[in-house]
Amino acid sequence: MSEDYEDESVRHAYQRYGVEGFYRTQGDTYRNPHEAALRRAIAAVARAHRLDLGHVLDLACGSGEATLALRELGAAQVDGADPYTARAYQERTGQPAEPLSFEDVAAGAMAGRRYTLIVCSFAMHLVAPSWLPLLCYWLAQASPHLLVLTPHKRPQLRPEWGWDLQDEIVVERVRARLYAAHAGAEGAL
């Protein structure tokens, strides 16, 4: 990361640059400072729920922290998507990241795709509240399960957006929330 970023927490960097500005300037070198806890949280949920890791989408994949954790757990295929960190993701995982933003997904860019699991780590709490219902709707069309990892209590996904909370596991202040797409999620909007 650039020297002027090194000593700042990510939260302070967001305040300084704005979220989009931060990732536009730091995305190529971004590393999640909570990677170890994030990996342990993913492993804890995978063990507790026997997640189907056949074809996973790592949405807002950053530099591949979740992808690498999922590979260690035996994931057959993990696709990354992030509009800002493609270089960092490629460097760490050896594969490209599709440049999809949350807004792209909310606009239907994933229509027709299917995944066994979608993982979104340390990013969904940054989505504007007005985008969350559509984003969640389209994610529910693409996968039966969604794992949201967050350092916050937000976002709280609502059943009317297509998701039912199955479990929450907290590992070193990282919240791992597993959601299941509920019956009737298709055509909910």
Produce the secondary structure layout:
Layout: H1 3-6, H2 10-17, H3 19-26, H4 35-49, E1 56-59, H5 65-72, E2 78-81, H6 86-93, E3 97-98, H7 102-106, E4 117-121, H8 132-142, E5 145-150, E6 163-171, E7 174-181
Parallel strand pairs: 1-2, 1-4, 2-3, 4-5
Antiparallel strand pairs: 5-7, 6-7
Helix pairs in contact: 2-3, 4-5
Description:
With 189 residues, the chain is α/β, with parallel strands linked by helices. The protein has two domains: 1-30, no CATH class; 34-181, Vaccinia Virus protein VP39 (Rossmann fold). It is built from eight helices and seven strands; from the N terminus they run ααααβαβαβαβαβββ. It has helices at residues 3-6, 10-17, 19-26, 35-49, 65-72, 86-93, 102-106, 132-142, and strands at residues 56-59, 78-81, 97-98, 117-121, 145-150, 163-171, 174-181. A seven-stranded mixed β-sheet has the order 3-2-1-4-5-7-6. Strand 4, helix 8 (132-142) and strand 5 form a beta-alpha-beta unit. Helix 4 crosses helix 5 (65-72). The chain is globular, with a radius of gyration of 15 Å. The N and C termini lie far apart (41 Å). Residues 1-8 have low confidence and may be disordered.
